[in-house]
Amino acid sequence: MLTITRRPGEKIMIGDDVVVEIVDVTGTTVRVGITAPRERKIYREELWERVRRENEEAARADPERLGELKPPAG
Amino acid sequence: MPQTVNSTRFGELEVPDEALIEFPDGLIGVGGSRFALLSREGNGAFSWLQEVERGDLALPVTDPFAFFPDYEVRISDAEAERIGIADPAGADVLAIVRAAEALADFSLNLLAPILVSRRVGHQVLNEAPASVREPLLAGMATQGSA
Questions:
Q1: What does each C-alpha distance from B53 to A28, A36, A56, A63, B16 come to in angstroms?
Q2: pLDDT tens, A26-57?
Q3: What are the φ and ψ backbone dihedral angles of B49, each rounded to 5 degrees?
Q4: What number is the average pLDDT over the span B22-27?
Q5: Which of B18, B98, B114 to mutate to test the interface with A (most CBs of A within 10 A)?
Q6: Which of A47, A51, A60 to substitute to test the interface with B, most B CBs within 10 Å?
Q7: Quick check: B123 contacting A, CB < 8 Å?
Q8: Element holding A49 (H helix, E strand)
Q9: What does each C-alpha distance from A18 to A5, A33, A49, B78 come to in angstroms?
Q10: What's this model's pTM, rounded to 2 decimal places?
Q11: CB B13 to CB A71 under 8 A?
Q12: What are the tens digits of pLDDT across the range B73-127?
């Protein structure tokens, strides 16, 4: 992992189009500003992880628990 | 033109165009790009989103409003701009189902619903308070179903 030391107001470029700015540091809390193209999805990691795990668990479902299926009528 | 899908769970399926949904960004953490919405025999509550190219990737989904009539989906302006859906009320909403051994333990992911508009789908993070694992029966209880 790349580790970079920054001060409030300083920025990091990820590629040419994502800018991460350290907005403010108070005690143990860091406020980060992110500027990225609108198609980039930006999540808090713990939220993303919770949804990823839930999606994976849902994808393990056994059809027998949910009844018989048929493709929708054309 | 119907699409042939080789599903690990359901075998070979002929899926009409109307049942295909494009997911430009896939589902969070599991990907996929094009899913077929498969409905159940009869009028069951659950459907499946079956990835077209990845036969082993399928998730059960349902209409969350059928269980939680007061369910609300709010998305941030940035998310609305990203997915091109200004108002979730104008989109179809699907909730991913977590199936368990017993129906009593089924839950819906109300935190990360899927919005579908003009056969394009996006899984979004709900800005309204919602659980990633809302018990299905909690919704049925609040409806006071007979």
A1: 46, 30, 17, 19, 15
A2: 999 999 999 999 888 899 999 999 999 999 99
A3: -100, 110
A4: 96
A5: B98
A6: A51
A7: yes
A8: helix A45-58
A9: 18, 11, 22, 15
A10: 0.88
A11: yes
A12: 999 888 898 898 888 888 999 999 999 888 888 999 999 999 999 999 999 999 9
Distances (CA, A) of B48 to A12, A41, A62, B21, B124: 42, 25, 11, 12, 18
Residue B13 corresponds to which tokens in the numbers above?
């399926």
Rounded Cα distance, B47 and A70, in Å: 10
Q: Which residues contact A15 (CB under 8 A, 6 or more apart)?
A: none
Q: How many angstroms separate the CA of residue A62 from the nearest CA in chain B?
A: 8
Nearest to B28 among A42, A51, A69 (CB): A51
Query: Are the beta carbons of A34 and B8 closer than 8 angstroms?
Result: no
